Amino acid sequence: xxxLLSLVRGCTxxxxxxxxxxxxxxxxxxxxxxxxxxxxxxxxxKRPIVSANMDTVTRSEMAIxxxxxxxxxxxxxxxxxxxxxxxxxxxxxxxxxxxxxxGDPYMIAPAASLADAAERMRxxxxxxxxxxxxxxxxxxxxxxxxLRFADEGxxxxxxxxPRERLVVHTGxxxxxxxxxxxxxxxxxxxxxxxxxxxxxxxxxxxxxxxQRQLPFAxxxxxxxxxxxxxxxxxxxxxxxxxxxxxxEADVIVIDIAHGHSVVMARAIEAFRKRFGDVELVAGNVATxxxxxxxxxxxxxxxxxxxxxxxxxxxxxxxxxxxPQVQALVExxxxxxxxxxxxxxxxxxxxxxxxxxxxxxGETVMLGSMLAGTAETPGDTVQKPVVVPDSNKxxxxxxxxxxxxxxxxxxxxxxxxxxxxxxxxxxxxxxxxEISVPARGSVRPLLRDMLKHLCSAVSYGGARSLSxxxxxxxxxxxxxxxxxxxxxxxxxxxx
Length: 494
Ligand code: XMP
Prior knowledge:
It is built from 19 helices and 22 strands. By secondary structure, the protein is α/β, with parallel strands linked by helices. The chain folds into 3 domains: 2-98 and 217-368 and 441-492, Alpha-Beta Barrel (TIM Barrel); 107-206, CBS-domain, CATH 3.10.580.10; 381-437, no CATH class.
């Protein structure tokens, strides 16, 4: 591997092409090519895509889209210090979006009024309530249809489908059996009960259909989408982690600009002391020393990248950083056999994705590449743009994309009313804010990216992403072509 390091020192994505190899697959079909990879030690994704924890990239809408497409989103911590609820709410929305088995269905007592039931349905947006007695034993099922034309003064028990007419499943939940039972009885909801008749969960036909339509989705053991959430290393970070874990975030990411630091060491130690063996990713680092430092502190995944990000000015303003390909190769040398790396930042064209994945990343974190899509947070604003040919002005929709260390993002996170001009001036910004054209959904973009990644696997002479990584690492010189200025122009200037 050290040969590779000397080959890539000082280099980044646009410095290389890869030599095409003898292709061994008939079709470059993303449905059949295995792109499985690890996000962290105990979390495997079917697609190696991670959406960045930036406040103009990942909140619940993006996290849902990315998880449904097989990757994972990291909800940013760009909320004001101490204001933890908004981030927790985003996690809740993702975890409630899809289910295999709903472990905690909404319940109501048989003696409750129909007005109460209607109110609960309206508040939760859920159209089915399981009717249970005080011991949580199933008494019936009440749906929106049962409320139609009903006297709201009546009781739940007067309109529910009672237990004796209800089909239920007793024993361990199994989606295949559930589907058969639902088909045989032409029902859309199947309550799960224990042998003592108490409610254990609910399976719905809608969720089963959804599971089949999204075969690559990243799900937890209960069939819910997975989501990660970012915290800092100071201030409210432990409290924030505690609330995020209570909302069942699957992974916590301690994300600070310089992860190889005393601040990070203190934060990991305090985190482990309080939360034990929770899946923890930390970053960012860009050197072998930085990786070893985090490994020694027992993290489960490491985010690599100092300064390659699209919204980032760290290298301009401080002159510190490591070209991303060098960082990935160096960090992988130190991390191999321990924890997976997330290649974070600098991927600005689809072809760079495969580079990030063979040079060292097991997954790739994307920020600017996803900017402006419908699932990113923030308003769309119309801006006048002059069309060069006709000199006419047209109005074009834009969205904001900004570095998390940009002045605007920092000021938004702080309580501005408590901040005077001198405080604002004292903030050392290492990011910038830009307007990007608003575009459609992120889903076709992700699918295109994955198609191109599958084509890259084929060009690389492999059958799967992991095989390509193996072949590449066995003999990188078979692949790596260092570009000159003119071959770079020939390759990428369009
Ligand atoms: P891309 O290139 O995909 O990179 O936009 C996303 C990553 O950029 C990092 N990031 C920043 N880095 N100052 C920085 O030095 C910033 O203000 C900033 N905001 C984001 C971050 O690692 C993200 O995942």
